[in-house]
Each structure stands twice: as C-alpha cells, then as structure tokens.
C-alpha cells in the first residue's frame, strides 16, 4: 500500500523547481505538510484544493515518513 502512495509523489525539475510534488501537479509535498502542521484537517485541505485527493495527503505523509527514516543524524558545523 505504501508503495502505491509513494507513486503519487513526482519529482520533475520543470515543476516547482524539482521539489517533490503531488501527481505532477504544482502542489509540493511541503505545502501539504505545512497545512497539516498548521492544524488543518484533511477535509479542510481537500475543500480548499479541489485537485487533491485524500490519498494524496496520505502520500505526503508517507513520503515524509520515509525521509525521516535515517540511521543517524549529524550536527553540521557552522
């Protein structure tokens, strides 16, 4: 199921400067995550962005989960 969701995430250098987007649309994954973290519900997001589907929101969450699955994080010196 997760791999089906992740197929909804596309990366194209000509769309949103190559940021991961939902289904080739101009909705970056980061936008969906920002909306969710601001307190919007999935239903509110879907009402505001008619091109999106509920599975797109789950795909953004699955993508973010994959990004955080690292073995270790190192502090970068400044």
UniProtKB/TrEMBL annotation:
<dbReference type="InterPro" id="IPR009057">
    <property type="entry name" value="Homeodomain-like_sf"/>
</dbReference>
<protein>
    <recommendedName>
        <fullName>DUF433 domain-containing protein</fullName>
    </recommendedName>
</protein>
<dbReference type="Pfam" id="PF04255">
    <property type="entry name" value="DUF433"/>
</dbReference>
<dbReference type="InterPro" id="IPR007367">
    <property type="entry name" value="DUF433"/>
</dbReference>
<dbReference type="InterPro" id="IPR036388">
    <property type="entry name" value="WH-like_DNA-bd_sf"/>
</dbReference>
């Amino acid at each position: 199921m997760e791999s089906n969701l992740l197929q909804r995430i596309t990366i194209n250098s000509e769309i949103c400067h190559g940021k991961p987007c939902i289904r080739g649309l101009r909705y970056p994954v980061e936008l969906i995550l920002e909306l969710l973290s601001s307190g919007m519900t999935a239903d509110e997001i879907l009402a505001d962005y008619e091109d999106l589907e509920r599975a797109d929101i789950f795909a953004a969450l699955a993508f973010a989960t994959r990004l955080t699955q690292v073995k270790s994080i190192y502090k970068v010196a400044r």
